[in-house]
Amino acid sequence: MASLCCVSKVTYYRDEQGVMAFAKKLREIRLQKGYTQERLANECDLPPAHISRIETGKINTSLSHICLIARILKVKPRDLMDFTLD
Q1: Would you tell me how many other CB atoms lie within 10 Å of the CB of residue 68?
Q2: Closest residue by Cα to residue 15 from 81, 73, 65, 71
Q3: What pLDDT is attached to residue 47?
Q4: Structurally, how many domains does the chain consist of?
Q5: Angle at the Cα of 74 (from 42 to 19), degrees rounded to 5?
Q6: Is 10 inside any structural domain?
Q7: I need a labelling partner for 70 at 20 to 30 A (CA). Which of 31, 44, 45, 86 fits?
Q8: In this predicted structure, what is the pLDDT of residue 4?
Q9: What is the pLDDT of residue 12?
Q10: pTM for this structure?
């Protein structure tokens, strides 16, 4: 389910289904590549809790972080986005 929130006259869109699908795909690829959340976070120069929050759908990560994570995992960003939405 998507939700809209208006903060300081800026509308923020969060697609819950998309966030959770991305979270699942990231975890799947991270494990296939043999990375722990801590190792991935360290190589991305991010706090370890950040990867955990992405993988649990607590945060809607940025395109910049998706590209960074893809580079570290040696996959294309589209591989992280390879999921189906209802």
Answers
A1: 17
A2: 81
A3: 96
A4: 1
A5: 75
A6: yes
A7: 86
A8: 61
A9: 78
A10: 0.86
Q: What is the pLDDT along the chain (86 residues), one digit of tens a residue?
A: 566 665 567 777 889 999 999 999 999 999 999 999 999 999 999 999 999 999 999 999 999 999 999 999 999 999 999 999 98
Do residues 54 and 26 make contact, with C-beta atoms less than 8 angstroms apart? Answer: yes
The helix/strand/coil state of 1 is: coil
- By residue range, what is the domain housing residue 61? 2-80
Distance between CA atoms of residues 59 and 74, nearest Å: 23
Kindly state whether residue 27 falls inside one of the protein's structural domains: yes
CA dist 77 and 49 (Å) reads 21
Helix (H) or strand (E) holding 10: strand 10-15
CB 69, CB 42: distance < 8 Å? no
Residue 73 located in a structural domain: yes
CATH code for position 45 = 1.10.260.40
